[in-house]
Write a structure and sequence with these properties.
This protein is of the alpha/beta class. The chain has 9 helices and 9 strands. α6 packs across α8. The longest helix is centred in the last third of the chain and has 18 residues. The protein is globular, with a radius of gyration of 20 Å.
């Protein structure tokens, strides 16, 4: 009888090193939203990869950084909690960038964990300097290291084979058709936020949160979702709405096109932009948004 293996792998690193892109590439489907903006990921999100005799659960985490508000503090706590009771920790770094103080602090933190830690030198599609690669490898006593490009798929098969070999015997934690632990409302809210990140610049992306206020499954199969887009200032609201409502319409249109294949149903998005001053430092709003590490 074939032994079934399953386990959890925490994917952790500094902001904007490609953690979400790596999780999406390894699972073969879109688990987390991605953008070039730092701190795009705000939640712990689990992506599931099913095999005939295995189930690998990858935990995407917020980027580790020095918090400047309560939201940032909760995001760091979420990432740290993701290290609990996992089978492997994957430390992702941007191998095309120089080693920074944040990388050193994170390596020291991970060295205290009981689970084996694997170093992933990501962005191998960009020019790499061997001296920089060696400096990353010297940060801690890593079990293994892999040089990969999550964007282009380079080196991922070797990494995936290694992770699967580390899984202990275990149960099937998720049904065969599960791709992540996210429910429809969370998926919709995150994809709307993704389009905000892609279509706005400067301070707006970091000051935006999204929340599904209403979700209805209508006869005929259509999903109706009313989504509130929260900002901190009236000027940000004007930027998001755009002239004649054009930007908000584009956000909705692009989000719907991305979401319908995932939800496998027609989607009607009803978007509203609301000002909630200093929401990133308001615990009650962070809890309502599911962004509090204390929830």
């Amino acid at each position: 009888m074939t032994t079934f293996r399953s386990g959890f792998v925490a994917v952790i690193g500094r902001p904007n090193v490609g953690k979400s892109t790596l999780v999406n590439a390894l699972t073969g489907h879109k688990v987390s939203i991605v953008s070039s903006k730092p701190q795009t990921t705000r939640f712990r999100i689990m992506g599931v990869l099913h095999g005939e005799d295995s189930q690998l659960i990858l935990i995407d985490t917020p980027g580790m950084h020095r918090p400047r508000h309560q939201l940032g503090d909760h995001m760091v706590k979420m990432a740290q909690r993701s290290l609990e009771a996992v089978d492997v920790i994957v430390h992702v770094v941007d191998a095309a960038a120089k080693v920074g103080a944040g990388d050193r602090r994170l390596a020291q933190l991970l060295a205290q964990e009981e689970a084996p830690v694997v170093l992933i030198l990501n962005k191998a599609d960009l020019p790499l300097h061997e001296a920089t690669v060696d400096e990353y490898r010297a940060l801690a006593h890593y079990r293994r290291h892999f040089v990969v490009s999550a964007l282009h798929g380079t080196g991922l098969k070797e990494l995936l084979d290694y992770l699967l070999a580390q899984l202990p015997e275990g149960p099937r934690y998720y049904p065969d058709d599960a791709k992540s632990d996210q429910h429809d409302a969370a998926i919709i809210a995150e994809h709307v936020r993704e389009q905000v990140l892609l279509l706005t610049q400067d301070e707006v992306p970091h000051a935006v949160a999204t929340m599904v206020e209403e979700l209805h499954y209508r006869e005929g199969g259509t999903i109706y979702a009313r989504v509130d887009i929260l900002v901190e200032r009236e000027s940000q609201k004007g930027i998001l709405i755009g002239q004649g409502g054009g930007r908000l319409k584009e956000i909705g249109s692009r989000a719907r096109q991305a979401l319908e294949p995932l939800l496998q149903r027609p989607l009607y998005l009803d978007l509203w932009v609301r000002v909630k001053k200093d929401w990133r430092n308001r615990e009650s709003l962070l809890r309502a948004l599911g962004l509090s590490a204390e929830r």
